[in-house]
Amino acid sequence: MLKFAKKLEGFEESTIREMTRKAIVNQAINLSQGMPDFEPPQELIEGIIEAIEKKEHQYSITYGNYNLREKISEKLRGYNGIEVDPEDEITVCCGASEGISSSILSILNPADEVIIFEPWYENYTPITHIAEGVPKYVQLKQEDFSIDEEKLKEEITKKTKAIIVNSPHNPSGKVFSSKEMKLIADICIDNDIIAITDEIYEYIIYDGEKHISLGSIPGMEERTITISGFSKTFSITGWRIGYVAAEKKLMKGIRKVHDYLTVCAPSILQEAAIKAFDLKDDYFSQLVKRYQKNRDYLSKSLNELGFKTIIPKGAYYMFSDISNFKTRDTDFADFLVKNKGVAVVPGSSFYHTENDENIVCNYVRFSFSQKIETLEEAIFRLKERLL
Ligand SMILES: Cc1ncc(COP(=O)(O)O)c(C=O)c1O
């Protein structure tokens, strides 16, 4: 009889992606998975056509198209304050997701511990299990999702190998402050820990908040794996273009895993992604303006319906308290997708199961990465049918 590897027992398939499948089956508006329903910038579409004309149909070099890596290194210097050599300190991956997987797989030995802030983006735990590591959860403070210094320090042991830092944060929308980043940096340096940063929402940031890259903090250059990508900033989640930047020695291991996992990211799309660097500052400010408008509309509308929303400072999700509806998050999400035609993600998929039920089961996550008209239709459906 077929028996799967034991390490698969620690996790299930992604609930976020499952909700998208349920949205399709139920013809629901999909506010579960974070993907836009509008077109990416025209420059990128033209980039694909040009890449086809250039006949970029074969494997790229495993580490990624060199011109793209060069552009990424300039962006890392200018936007993130991180200095890396495109030759051997940047690797283009199949999305930030693969970057995270390759990074975790390259540094963990069995029983090594990984600090994961809770709630967390779904991918971190399964990959830690696949690498036979042990996730150590540090719950963010309930009131504002800030880091509880004591809780964090309590979880640091001799076995702590890595800490995953996602800012802007999915699902809460929290943007980690410079004080919090400094705290993490000090802990990493004092305890010889590697930081893996997930900065996929680095440009989607509101209310004058500033994005801080952990890898730019002095002393962190040698021990930070910086991960980002093109999915969210350029509304091309299906292209699967992301990247990892790290100091040469760390990168050597990451490249070994990346090479055998995927060989390379899609060549045509790597070539086309270079066009993203032609976009002017105005593109980024318009993107933020669009999402900020969505955020404000969704928050006001959901609160009127009885949800208690947490206003995100970054990313494009609204983690919303559903305690007024007196139902579990999973039942509520199921009810919404089947009966109301709106798909959301139950909050418990961002927590580990042994946690306090009151916290875990009282949230659902709405994405507002869609057109405002899509959000209006979702609110119409909830209004007409929910109350
Ligand atoms: C925090 C976070 N990291 C990574 C990803 C995936 O990024 P990519 O499409 O580049 O794999 C997502 C997607 O929702 C995310 O929310």
From TrEMBL:
Family annotation (PROSITE patterns): AA_TRANSFER_CLASS_1 (PS00105)
SUPFAM superfamilies to which the protein is assigned, alphabetical: PLP-dependent transferases (SSF53383)
The organism's place on the tree of life at top rank: Archaea
Keyword annotations from UniProtKB, A to Z: Aminotransferase, Pyridoxal phosphate, Transferase
GO molecular function: kynurenine-oxoglutarate transaminase activity; pyridoxal phosphate binding
One GO cellular component, as annotated: cytoplasm
Enzyme class per UniProt: transferase
EC number: 2.6.1.-
InterPro entries: Aminotransferase_I/II_large (IPR004839), Kynurenine-oxoglutarate_AT (IPR051326), NHTrfase_class1_PyrdxlP-BS (IPR004838), PyrdxlP-dep_Trfase (IPR015424), PyrdxlP-dep_Trfase_major (IPR015421), PyrdxlP-dep_Trfase_small (IPR015422)
One Pfam family, short name: Aminotran_1_2
Aminotransferase class I/classII large domain: residues covered: 28-379
Cofactor or coenzyme needed: pyridoxal 5'-phosphate
Similarity remark: Belongs to the class-I pyridoxal-phosphate-dependent aminotransferase family.
Protein name listed in UniProt: Aminotransferase
Organism of derivation: Candidatus Heimdallarchaeum aukensis
